UniProtKB/TrEMBL annotation:
Signal peptide: none annotated. It holds the Pfam family Eco57I. Its EC number is 2.1.1.72. This is site-specific DNA-methyltransferase (adenine-specific).
Length: 1182
């Protein structure tokens, strides 16, 4: 089945039908329309409905005809219709029912107007179209008795108040009609299974779903009427089979051990050990199955298939089986009328496929699909209700039950009827006869409706199977949210979890619940109580843990899911069967893995675990994939919090205001190295290092941010005090640990867990939480432990979602002091060496505040040429990576041995997890080839060389002194010369470096870069060195500086550039300045010495080109080239003249002052129009 084609059709069909129904509505309501004379009652009702909610009328008519068209096409293909209603006979083009009518073969009970339209006696613009419209309506009415839920009568002669007929689309016969398109996608192959109807429904409402979720992003709650669109998700067939076979199929096999049903169930997981305490079933007719959120009925239709096999195996007559199944076994509950109708239709088609047309039409049984409806009994009606029910039945429980369904469309199956046994009350109330008392009859009908819904929601089912709605608490409308909080406090975070509770409540004792939902209930702390209840009161029998990419139709990693079967009784010690499919990259791969695991439990992703095992892990995450030794660690060892409590840090609530990248502000304003709050508070500085988590990196690094904590955080504390008056906001947690050395980790990871050593001097963030130890030895030991394979495996159990909270680290099992002494003696030295190596790597790059000089220029690696120097440096980097790799694996070996996990874990570390920036496998990943990675590393190293050169041009760095030179606000050449009196490479004097297409100025950036190359590696081999640079970059030096440098700089400094690019609108003029050297007259320097000077140079160039173009001594080619270049120069002059006049000159007049404390995000926009725009600069800081 081509679901992409179905999706494309369904979405376009919805838009087409809405357009055609809208046109039809306007036509029939027009003054003087024929419909007004022929159907006045229907028009009156239509006008009333349209005036109340025109959009709803159109939407309802559109989906009604969509459902009917798809149903009729399916019935045509499967041979249920005769003649075919929307399909032509073989070899024909017109729908068969129309072709037969044109041949004089009208259907029985057909309206006379059909023949009149066809023979021309009744005037019409298109007689065939009008006749076919009536034939369609006739066919729908004929199928009403067999399937009233799909084909409500739309005949004006029978229901004068119904306006559906009036809104049938006009174009049904053209090659571009909705029916023609329908036939193209609903081919005979596609209609082999009725599940196509469910797919079409999901795709039909998909645009509505997108609209609902777009509203959700704007904090618009999901209303009751939008819940179906927001939560419908058609379940892939393989998941349905797993769920039904391991619930219904398992239950039947327990009751009929000799059954051959298992051979027909490809997704059935046979239990490891015999089961004796199970739900007893005497007959197939006794089995009750419910889908409490049935949608279009996919679960129910496969349950029908399996039940058919059960009945056949029991010896029932094939002609009786479909009726028996519909009468006894299947109940669907739904809040959406459309989905409910499609579910009932799908079950009917299952029956029809087994019975054939004639027997199906004679079958009296109808699918038991209960579509919940809002029913209200005002207090004034209670006397009438009592009269209908009778005083003997009108109990408090009944009264309360009658009031529970006012929000049935909103709360759905989550309603738990107070009346415990509504079936008997329903029977008695329904049997009462109120004669001609229409008022009491109407009340009686509503009471019966409520009792029928209550009966469906009673706990009687042997099997409950569902793909429930997924909706987080933030999306719930107010009434639904309040209802869930009041009735399902342990699962209130999401509707899928609430449905887990409710589904178990619908099960009989020892009944089975089969469900697919989000995996988050297995791990998140918000579901800890739910897990505890399940593990204590129920039993997980099996699970296919799907993870991401289980639904190809919704793509990517939108949802991470798990499917499972739970028994509504606790079996002490029973081990469930778990199949781990999370590694599969596609739905198809997961299907193959599931099939293989069922056939071969030794495949490597088949596990067995009991509730007792899982309960040994704190908070009881459903971590089924660990070994007995692993579970025992949690049972026998104390958590890390007994040694040192992991702690959360600060939450600013306004990062834009209180945080900066350290490179943005004056270096002298940053207080480095303070050992405690008192020392920092006494200092004059405003900014202090801030640990904010960051990317995956182990051992050392991610030291990039600073926080405004002047006067012990005076400003941020005042801000929090004011903020918290209106809503809970920022908090400065654990202040007594600020500035202490720590071991820290990033709260959110995209891969393995990693900790980093932080020396004294840092405040830490909630996303860079930390743990603190008393001694240096403990720091080394626990840094090694936390970065080991042991803790990685532990945290995969405690937080498989890769969101690492302090509470997770608190629970890491820690060996007693006497047991960790030996490991500590071995690990401490290794860890110290690793940290030193990681620190050296971090400090080799400009983004470290401890950066001193470029490694490529270090005497340790420098050779006669740049290429030879790079070769030396690359060899050194490889040695660092190899040594780090060896040490990390030795660290793993120490802790694996200490914890006795030699059979569970290996010490190997993937090369891409050796987190050194100089390691290309970590820096670029391992998806590309080693050759590609080496080429990128060489290119980036050369780019870093040129970037450092620009830093030397501006005086931020010097070849003659280590570290930062000019790094404070307003500093200039005078301050530079005070520190470096005789520089070998002098900085630019006016802080403006032009970046142009040629060397128009003496301080042109390419000219200066070439000078830098000569100074650093000599003049003798300049050409060779330049060739190496350009080969590594893949382009010439000027092209790289003009096209790539600024983007590279912005990317490297994470959209907080310190070198700013003045750039004209079309890029004819570009010049860099260094923001720390900026002064209020800097724009004037750019204007007078560069922009105006450049315009003057262009004027001279223009005159020379014009002269050349007219020079009779020039060749025709030279003249043509000169003419083209003249045109270009004229445009450049016009661009720059306008830019100078409208932007740069007025800005220079303003003499704008900046405060580096305000950061790039606030200062850069002050020069809007003059500076090159930075995409994403305005985005809020995380």
């Amino acid at each position: 089945m081509d679901t992409n084609a179905l999706k494309k059709f369904a979405q376009s069909a919805r838009n087409l039908l809405i357009a055609q129904v809208t046109a039809r509505l306007d036509m029939v309501l027009a003054e003087g329309a024929a419909a007004r004379r022929e159907h006045p009652a229907a028009i009156a009702r239509l006008e009333a409905a349209a005036s109340s909610n025109r959009g709803q009328v159109i939407e309802q008519a559109a989906y009604t005809w969509f459902n009917r068209f798809t149903a009729l096409r399916f019935m045509d293909v499967t041979g249920l219709t005769n003649p075919r209603v929307v399909s032509p006979a073989d070899g024909a083009t017109r729908p068969e029912i129309l072709a037969e009518a044109m041949a004089g073969n009208l259907p029985d009970r057909a309206r006379p107007e059909i023949a009149e339209y066809l023979n021309g006696t009744r005037p019409a613009h298109d007689g065939q179209a009008e006749a076919y419209r009536l034939l369609l309506i006739h066919a729908c009415n004929e199928w009403h008795h067999a399937m009233p839920y799909m084909f409500e009568r739309a005949d004006m002669l029978d229901r004068a108040e119904d306006y559906t007929e009036l809104l049938i689309p006009d174009d049904l016969l053209s090659p571009d009609s909705i029916l023609a398109r329908l036939r193209e996608v609903m081919t005979e192959d596609a209609c082999e299974d009725v599940e196509i109807i469910g797919w079409l429904y999901q795709f039909y409402i998909s645009e509505k779903k997108d609209q609902v979720f777009a509203g959700l992003k704007k904090n618009q709650k999901i209303t009751a009427e939008n819940i179906p669109a927001a939560t419908q998700l058609f379940t892939p067939h393989w998941i349905v089979r797993y769920l039904v076979e391991n619930s219904l199929g398992r239950l039947w096999l327990l009751n009929r051990p000799g059954s051959g049903l298992a051979a027909k169930m490809d997704y059935y997981i046979a239990p490891e050990e015999p089961e004796t305490d199970f739900l007893r079933i005497q007959r197939a007719e006794d089995i009750c199955i419910c889908d409490p959120a049935c949608g279009s009925g996919h679960m129910l239709t496969y349950a029908f298939d399996l039940l058919y096999e059960i009945y056949a195996e029991e010896g029932h007559d094939a002609a009786e089986i479909p009726g028996l199944i519909l009468r006894h076994n299947l109940t669907g509950i739904e809040i959406d009328d459309r989905a409910g109708a499609l579910a009932a239709f799908a079950l009917s088609m299952k029956a029809a496929a087994k019975l054939g047309r004639r027997r199906f039409l004679r079958m009296e049984e109808k699918p038991d699909v209960v579509v919940l409806q809002d029913v209200r009994f005002p207090p004034a009606e209670m006397q009438d209700v009592a009269a209908v029910v009778g005083k003997d039945l009108f109990t408090d429980e009944l009264r309360e039950t009658l009031g529970q369904f006012e929000q049935a469309k909103n709360f759905g199956s989550l309603i738990v009827p107070k009346l415990r046994d509504p079936i008997e009350t329903l029977r008695l109330v329904a049997a009462r006869d109120f004669g001609s008392d229409l008022l009491l009859k109407e009340v009686q009908a509503r009471v019966v409706a409520v009792l029928s819904m209550a009966e469906a929601l009673s706990p009687k089912y042997h099997v409950v199977v569902a793909n429930p709605p997924y909706m987080g608490g933030k999306g719930m409308n107010g009434k639904l949210g309040d209802f869930v909080k009041a009735n399902y406090p342990d699962s209130k975070s999401d509707l899928f979890a609430v449905f887990m509770e409710r589904a178990l409540g619908l099960c009989a004792k020892r009944g089975l619940m089969a469900m697919i939902n989000m995996q988050s209930w297995m791990f998140l702390s918000s579901y800890e109580k739910l897990r505890g209840t399940l593990l204590s009161n129920a039993t997980i029998l099996s699970m296919a843990h799907i993870g991401e990419r289980g639904f190809d139709t919704i793509g990517g990693v939108v949802v991470s899911t798990t499917s499972f079967v739970i028994k509504n009784a606790h079996d002490e010690g029973r081990r469930g069967e778990f199949i781990r499919l999370v590694e599969g990259d596609s739905e198809r791969e997961k299907v193959l893995q599931l099939r293989e695991a069922i056939q071969n439990p030794n495949c490597g992703w088949f596990y067995r675990a009991s509730a007792d095992d899982i309960a040994k892990i704190p908070s009881s995450p459903i971590v089924y994939w660990q070994t007995e030794r692993f579970y025992e660690l949690f049972r026998t060892l104390n958590g890390l919090s007994q040694i040192a409590k992991p702690r959360q840090g600060a939450t600013t609530s306004d990062n834009d205001r209180f945080l900066r990248s350290w490179t943005e502000v004056s270096c002298q304003r940053i207080g480095f190295g303070h050992a405690n709050r008192a020392s920092a508070a006494a200092a004059a500085q405003k900014w202090f290092p801030y640990n904010k988590g960051g990317e995956f990196r182990r051992w050392y690094g991610n030291q990039e941010f600073i926080i405004n904590f002047k006067n012990d955080g005076e400003e941020i504390k005042e801000f929090h005090e004011e903020l918290n008056k209106t809503r809970p906001g920022g908090r400065l947690k654990n202040q007594d640990h600020y500035f202490s050395q720590s071991v820290s980790w990033s709260k959110i990871s995209t891969g393995s867990f990693a900790v980093r050593y932080f020396p004294e001097g840092f405040i830490f963030d909630v996303a860079g939480s930390a743990v603190f130890f008393e001694s240096r030895e403990d720091f080394s030991y626990f840094t090694g432990l936390l970065n080991s394979a042991v803790v990685t495996s532990v945290l995969q159990a405690l937080s498989p979602t890769l969101n690492f909270e302090a509470e997770h680290l608190s629970k890491i099992p820690v060996l007693p002091a006497k047991n960790r002494a030996a490991a500590a003696s071995h690990a401490s030295g290794i860890v110290e060496r690793i940290i030193n190596c990681s620190k050296a790597d971090w400090d080799d790059y400009e983004t470290s505040w401890d950066f001193t000089t470029l490694p490529l220029l270090s005497p340790d690696h420098r050779a006669g040429t740049l290429e030879a120097s790079y070769a030396n440096l690359r060899a050194h980097w490889q040695d660092m990576t190899d040594e780090m790799h060896r040490l990390e694996e030795e660290n793993n070996r120490i802790f694996i041995d200490a914890y006795g996990l030699q059979d569970e874990l290996t010490p190997e570390v993937p090369i891409d997890e050796i987190t050194l920036t100089c390691n290309p496998a970590y820096r670029y990943g391992v998806k590309n080839t080693e050759e590609d990675r080496e080429a990128r590393l060489r290119e980036d190293t050369v780019a870093e060389f040129l970037h450092y050169a620009v830093g030397c041009m501006f005086g931020r760095y010097s070849l003659d002194a280590p570290g930062l030179i000019l790094a404070n606000e307003g500093e200039g050449i005078e301050e530079y010369l005070a520190r470096v009196p005789e520089p070998s490479f002098a900085p630019d004097r006016d802080n403006v470096i032009p970046v142009l297409d040629a060397d128009w100025f003496v301080d042109d950036i390419v000219t200066r870069a070439r000078d830098f190359l000569r100074v650093t590696f000599g003049d003798a081999k300049f050409r060779e060195n330049l060739a190496f640079v350009e080969a590594a970059l893949g382009k010439d030096l000027r092209k790289w500086f003009t096209k790539d440098f600024f983007d590279y700089h912005v990317r490297r400094y994470k959209k907080r550039p310190i070198y700013w690019m003045f750039s004209s609108p079309k890029g004819s003029f570009n010049a860099l300045i260094y923001m720390h050297r900026y002064r209020p007259d800097t724009v004037s320097v750019v204007l007078n010495q560069y922009v105006r000077e450049f315009i003057h140079k262009l004027e001279v160039e223009r005159a020379q080109l014009e002269k050349l173009a007219l020079d009779p001594a020039a060749t025709p080619a030279q003249q043509t080239k000169a003419q083209k270049e003249t045109t270009t120069v004229i445009k450049q002059i016009a661009e720059l003249t306008e830019w100078e006049r409208d932007v740069v000159y007025p800005m220079a007049q303003q003499k704008i002052a900046i405060d580096l404390d305000d950061g790039v995000k606030r200062n850069y926009p002050l020069f809007a129009g003059a500076l090159k725009p930075i995409k994403g600069l305005e985005a809020a800081d995380d």
